[in-house]
Amino acid sequence: xxxxxxxxxxxxxxxxxxxxxxxxxxxxxxxxxxxxxxxxxxxxxxxxxxxxxxxxxxxxxxxxxxxxxxxxxxxxxxxxxxxxxxxxxxxxxxxxxxxxxxxxxxxxxxxxxxxxxxxxxxxxxxxxxxxxxxxxxxxxxxxxxxxxxxxxxxxxxxxxxxxxxxxxxxxxxxxxxxxxxxxxxxxxxxxxxxxxxxxxxxxxxxxxxxxxxxxxxxxxxxxxxxxxxxxxxxxxxxxxxxxxxxxxxxxxxxxxxxxxxxxxxxxxxxxxxxxxxxxxxx
Length: 282
Fold this sequence. Notes:
Helix content: 40-55%
Number of strands: 12
CATH superfamily of the largest domain: Aldolase class I
CATH architecture of the largest domain: Alpha-Beta Barrel
Order of helices and strands: HHEEHEEEHEHEHHEHEHEHEHE
Number of helices: 11
Largest sheet: 6 strands, parallel
């Protein structure tokens, strides 16, 4: 997590929402102090600790108490955190905090469910670059909170030779050769394959990672038998949660799922301002 970038992002998000001031809260509450609690209305896996820590730096007048940590599961009715400070500040920051924590906790929960389907195997669940523009760092962090791993963060992380690269280059072999010539020893080369001939080419050209794209479990298992153990095998392309267990039996090392970040639902969480002091929390 790049905490400097996160702080900058949050400042922009708050600026977008607050503008020149929360006229409703400022008119009603003036200098009143208060407390509020963020309560889960549905189960999930928490992802928001880093956000709260950054909010503390931007709004030192707010005090937060966390009752869950990143990566912890929670049930409906659970009090996730408590906030104390100026009521106007609590209410003006509420929406940005909720939007992010709800979104990220949903991603973490979906990832946790996907990872649970790999129990008893060495297969890892990975995300993709199918993230919300501007939120990639946070959404990929949420995947980690759910027990998954991250694929490349951007086009500059690693070589990933896809179908259009291969079509334009003329062959898998040519594309890998050019990538090897351009890249340094620290940068891995992954190639996406769609048929048996491409699998053979990728192995012969010594790709570091071979992605089996848009294939069923049986086809994947057949191709995995052709790939030496020192080459990492990734399965990708429309894999659903219900298919994970079948794919874990193919011999692949990684299953990447774009839906973790592009289709996860948000967890319902609300902020309740306390009218009188609570003495205990769920």
